Amino acid sequence: MPKCEKCTFFFPIPEKDMDFEPGKGDCVEQQQDTKGKFWLSKPVSENSEACQRYRPRN
Amino acid sequence: MPTTERTARLKNRCRFKHVAGGEYVDPGVKAGVERARLITQAHKENIGEPTSIIRAKGLENILKKITIHIQDDELIVGANTEHPDYFPMYPELSYFSTMDMVESHYCDHKEEMAEIAEYWKPYTIQRKAEKYFTPEEIGIMYSATTVQPPMFVTAFSSIVPNYESVIEDGLLKRIEVVEQKIADAEEEIRKSPWNAPEKLHYLDKIDQWQAMLIAMKAVVGWAQRHARLAKIIAENFLTDPKRKEELLEISDICRHVPAYPARGLKDAMQSKWFTFLLCHSIERYSSGYGHKEDKLLWPFYKKSVIEKNEQPMTREEAVELFECERLKVSEHGSTKGRQLREFFAGSNDLFILTLGGINPDGSDASNDCTNAILEAAENIVTTEPSIAFRWNEKGNVETKKRVFNCIKKGFGFPSIKNDELNTQQLIKYFNVPEEIARDWALVLCMSPGITGRRGTQKTRSEGGSDVYPAKVMEIALTNGFDEFFTNMQLGPETGNAEEFTSFDQVWEAVKLQLRYAIELSLRSKDVGRIMESRYLCCPFISSIDDGCVEKGLDGNELAEVANPWHNIIGGSVVVVDSMAAIKKLVFDEKKYSMKELMDALRNNWEGKEEMRLDFWNAPKFGNDDPYADEIATKYYDLIADEWKRNTTYSGTFPLPLAQSVAGYIVNGPKTNATANGRHAGEALDDGGISPYMGCDKNGPTAVLKSVSKINGSKHKGILLNQRLSTVLMNSDAGFDLWHAYMKTWHGLGIDHVQFNVISSEEMKAAQIEPEKHTDTLVRIAGYSAKFIDLARYSQDTIIARTEQDLAAG
């Protein structure tokens, strides 16, 4: 199974940030409904198994 | 019209969270579970730690892990839930409130949330507090008939956050201060010789300070998450260069605040918004939007808009930012149980900001920031946040014209408070130094409280909660027993009215029932306050109060500046008019006996229309009629005296605050027929001192004269609704007539007034074709709502209000 760290939507947290932990990153998702576009971000571990939205980074 | 295309788009797609008929209007609104899930997870992991630390780690877990989001077009970012359509849940507060939501159609995670609610049951403030009351007392309070159910079951609170300390200091500086406090304490307890009475108190303080550190660091990290998200969107998801540039600026702002002091208006607005979210809906739920916005933002407005040396922007861009703020508030989700959703008919929550008044040095506090905020309100046309304007004789005419412009458009706000009267109240009753008292803002709809870096109100246990006077009077006539709604003994046995032989006996029974309701309600607040201090510490809220940091105390516990008040909600004028009718027709003229009256009331005046009309036509408050006004004076003095008998948690007596929100609508159906000629179930009076619907027949000045006979200085506030003619207000003479009226109002020393400026024809047209009146706003009492979102019963109460003609005097 692919891991989150290889996903286009995984963004590692910079070391200088308060919530930095090794291997932790932001999973960012664009959504759109009748009221417009918005983007969600939740923390994930790079070693987590990727979800259905997985898209490999180029 | 919205000032820019952006705010037009944002308004068009706004995810409004207001309620109607006790339900959220937008079908997309849902209960979010992440906050509840994360605070539960942290509680399980940290049980055994001091409460302050458990609470801090709960907040930390939420801020680190909750899904954050940014919507297209936004200039102010941040929310309290994982999705822009959601509102959060607070299982640590009240089991009943949580289960109310779990069992509703708003909750899609019923099994998980039921499990969370069961886990919290023994830890909730509700469970901790209930054991100090008898089952009978619990039954009375939860029936919501004579008193509002207590905070520990409604989970309803209110707060004025110390925005100034965040915006002026930045959290990193405050972290340094707290670290130094811990270091000093550690050194102090190691000094020779050991002295337990002098040293042991540091243990609790160190825990509180450690909790504050955890909370503040988590908040900085949460803002950095928003900074990262804005940058990621700009660099990975968008091609529009203008929006990319905006998002990169948002990213810079969130990296800067609240960690550091705000540089300009954009920083200050974002820092204020983050602080609002944390204090009002993430660390715990508290209603309100209490701050003196033009005072708070003026230094930054000057730097950005006038001097243009920090985050330079045009005035139009500033107005756009204030419009964005109004929309952000409109889509902020608040969590309330059904009783409160019904009580705030047509609104989302009680979001009220304050403008105007004078500065600490006595100069006019209205400035161009005040004007820009009013201009934004006039342009964007949203019900929320409502605005209170402090009317001081020093206030400039230009700002007062802008206040008039909003009122004449029918927004129902700004509501107007007497600045001098309210400032003096804080000085006289609560020993607030004059220069601090001059920075007051409304805590919720009507109550002034201090703003600034320390000593602001932190919980509704300090000020708030309700007594319902019409129901109190009803049971005063039936030996304390509620025959009409609950079939319960709601108060002491004070006799059956059939046996009363003097008006004094009626008065005494009302006084004793009122006394019982007041004392039960005050006791429930203070028991709740102790439980909040023990089990519901709020380390972030405490960390931004200079007093809490200095003393190492939680904000719930520290009552540095007392501000106790208690609402007397909807029905005061029904009581006054009923007492006047009883005095005149039963005891003065002896036209009817008390037995005949009680029979008629029990039968809802059936077969007694002529008798009802006698009572309906008896002297009524609001007509400058000495007979009714004398009883009103006695009644309002009585309630002030009854509250004054008590001493609350913060060491002084509370002041009563007569108002109604939508309580006059909700409590009407619970209240039997009354001796003012009102039928059972009909609405009560719609303010705190508004004449009963249709009973003020002698013009607006007569209303003011009646109201001015009440000694307003004994009260925290007294709400007066007035309805003015749209034709007159929109005529060339509109401002001059209104301004003259306001000068009369001010000269008479009256506390408050607010206006509906809408014709009966427009309201009736909106009832027939609601789709054509989506921006028709009306004033309820303390807040405004879209007319079309009100139930027909509520709409009719507004149509029934007397339309005053200012030209008639």
* Low-pLDDT ranges of chain B: none
**Share of β-strand residues of chain B:** 5-15%
| Order of strands across the main sheet of chain A | 1-2-3
Overall helicity of chain A: under 10%
Number of helices of chain A: 0
Oligomer: heterodimer
Largest sheet of chain B: 6 strands, mixed
Protein name (chain A): Benzylsuccinate synthase BssC
Pfam family, one (chain A): BssC_TutF
Keywords (chain A): Lyase
EC number (chain A): 4.1.99.11
Describe the structure.
The complex is a heterodimer of chains A (58) and B (809). Chain A is an all-beta fold. Chain A has a domain at 1-13 and 25-45. Chain A contains no helices and 3 strands. In chain A, strands 1-2-3 form a 3-stranded antiparallel β-sheet, with no helix packed on it. Chain A is flat, with a radius of gyration of 12 Å. The two termini of chain A are 18 Å apart. By secondary structure, chain B is an alpha/beta fold. Chain B has a domain at 463-719. Chain B is 50% helix and 8% strand. Chain B is built from 35 helices and 19 strands. In chain B, the strands form 6 sheets. In chain B, strands 6-7-8-16-15-19 form a 6-stranded mixed β-sheet. A 4-stranded parallel β-sheet of chain B has the order 11-12-13-14. In chain B, strands 1-2 form a two-stranded antiparallel ribbon. In chain B, a hairpin with a 2-residue loop joins β1 and β2. In chain B, α22 crosses α23 and α23 (503-535) packs parallel to α29. The model of chain B has no long low-confidence stretch (mean pLDDT 95).
Would you summarize the structure shown here?
Chain A: Keywords: Lyase. Chain A: It comes from Desulfotignum phosphitoxidans DSM 13687. Chain A is mainly beta.
